[in-house]
Write a structure and sequence with these properties.
The chain has about 180 residues and is of the alpha+beta class. The chain has 5 helices and 7 strands, in the order E-H-H-H-E-E-E-E-E-E-H-H. The protein folds into 2 domains: about 90 residues; about 70 residues, no CATH class.
């Protein structure tokens, strides 16, 4: 079974891994992201009722209220996700790492990650859980994670064998918290 992987870094995979980690960590607190949509929506509804009731926008009140609502929906659905991804790439610096070689070496004690400027070792006992969404395999350590993309494996069977081997190294608590598709 393969336990060494060398991959070129791809910022799109890092962003996808971060999104998967956030969904996992904040799964019980989905109301936070709902509030981010509910609050502007409630403010819009209040604006619509007030402007319609008072008529302060004049003869075109209804058209303006409907137009602003449509623009708000278009922004929330299409523009905000794109802007957030771009902002994350720029602020986090993941785009600057594009194409750099990342080496993963897994053993019975833990796993080592090496890049041009970093080398680290993580013991299996420190891994909180593993998450597999089919495209990405995350090794969660507190609020952070190391990710191993599907392209690291030459076949589905090799990936399944690796996941089964890695899960066997986790603590029973980490195994219980893990979310795997195998």
């Amino acid at each position: 079974m393969e336990t060494r992987f060398s991959l070129d870094y791809r910022s799109a995979e890092a962003v996808a891994g971060r999104r998967l980690l956030n969904r996992t960590i904040y799964a019980g607190r989905r109301w936070i992201s709902s509030a981010a949509i509910f609050v502007p929506g409630a403010l819009y509804v209040a604006f619509a009722f007030y402007s319609n009731w008072s008529g302060w926008l004049g003869r075109y009140t209804l058209e303006i209220v409907v137009g602003v609502g449509i623009l708000l929906l278009i922004y929330i659905r299409f523009a905000a996700p794109v802007l957030n991804r771009r902002l994350f790439r720029r602020i986090s610096g993941v785009a600057d790492l594009e194409g750099r070689l990342v080496d993963y070496e897994f053993s019975d004690e833990g796993y080592r990650i090496r890049t041009q400027h970093f080398e680290g070792f993580q013991r299996w006992a420190g891994v909180d859980r593993m998450i597999d969404d089919g495209d990405m395999l995350l090794f969660v350590i507190g609020p952070n994670a190391n990710h191993l993309p599907r392209r690291a494996f030459s076949s589905r069977d090799q990936r399944r064998a690796f996941i089964a081997w890695a899960v066997g190294r986790l603590t029973p608590q980490a195994r219980a918290r893990s979310r795997l598709r195998v």
